[in-house]
Amino acid sequence: MSDGGKTLDVGFTSTLDKLAEGLSYDELFEVNKKTAQVFVDTVKPMIPERDNVNEKYHLRESLHIERQKNNSARVGFDKKTKKAAVTRFINDGWDSSWKNKRNGKKIEGLHFWEKATQESENKMNETMTEEIKKIVKRKAGGN
Question: pLDDT digit string (tens) for 73-95?
Answer without folding.
Answer: 999 988 888 888 888 989 999 88
